[in-house]
Amino acid sequence: MWRSSSTNLRDDNKVITDELADHETRLRRLEATRWPLPTIGALAGVAGVATALFALLQH
Q1: H/E stretch holding 25
Q2: How many C-alpha atoms does 51 have within 13 Å on its Cβ side?
Q3: How far does Cα 25 stand from its chain's mean position?
Q4: Phi, psi of 36 (to 5 degrees)
Q5: CA-based end-to-end distance of the chain
Q6: Phi-psi category of residue 42: left, alpha or beta, with phi > 0 → left and psi -120 to 50 → alpha
Q7: pTM of the shown model
Q8: What dihedral do alpha carbons 19, 25, 27, 31 form, nearest 10°?
Q9: pLDDT tens, 1-28?
Q10: CA atoms of 46 and 40, how far apart (whole Å)
């Protein structure tokens, strides 16, 4: 019985470790593809200035 329980615990530990590694990999991939919020804010600001200049020069 001891051998069986210890084998089951090792198997369960292996499964959990593999799943954790998979989740960590997926999370890192998602973080790498996200744009940081300040970058999006800066792009929106530049677009606003460009639009304002365009409207100003049209008059």
Answers
A1: helix 2-33
A2: 6
A3: 10
A4: -70, 145
A5: 88
A6: alpha
A7: 0.49
A8: 180
A9: 445 777 888 888 999 999 999 999 999 9
A10: 10
Specify the long-range contacts of residues 11-14, CB closer than 8 Å, at least 24 apart. Answer: none
16 token code pair: 């959990």
Q: Report residue 8 CA to chain centroid gap.
A: 34
Q: For 34, which DSSP code?
A: S
The Cα 20–Cα 39 span in angstroms is: 31
**Residue 59 carries which DSSP code?**
-
Q: What is the distance between the alpha carbons of residues 9 and 21, in angstroms, rounded to a whole number?
A: 18
